[in-house]
Amino acid sequence: MKTKLIDAYKIPDLFLPLIVNGDSQGLTNEELKALQLWEEKLTKNSNYSHIIIECPDDNNKPYFTWRPDIINLGCNVYDLKVYGVYKTWDM
After folding, report:
1. In 1-91, beta strands by DSSP E
2. What is this structure's pTM?
3. 52 - beta bridge partners?
4. Residue 54 falls inside a structural domain
5. Structurally, how many domains does the chain consist of?
């Protein structure tokens, strides 16, 4: 699997249970749709089949911002790197 760093994004902390553990409990349908649309935006018209979002470590602390990625509401976020996974092996 070949990957490439796309960028670092301000990922709202409310998405971490889903990103880290696959647990969508507590997320609304609108929040799930927003995450899906954001991922589709990153992979559409690219050579990426999907994305990988890094998990925060002990050095990555959340902070509040009015301008997170994915949703348009002020919230606590983590700065996390997002990698694209290429569709084919010969990239």
Report:
1. 3-12, 48-53, 63-65, 75-86
2. 0.83
3. 83
4. yes
5. 1
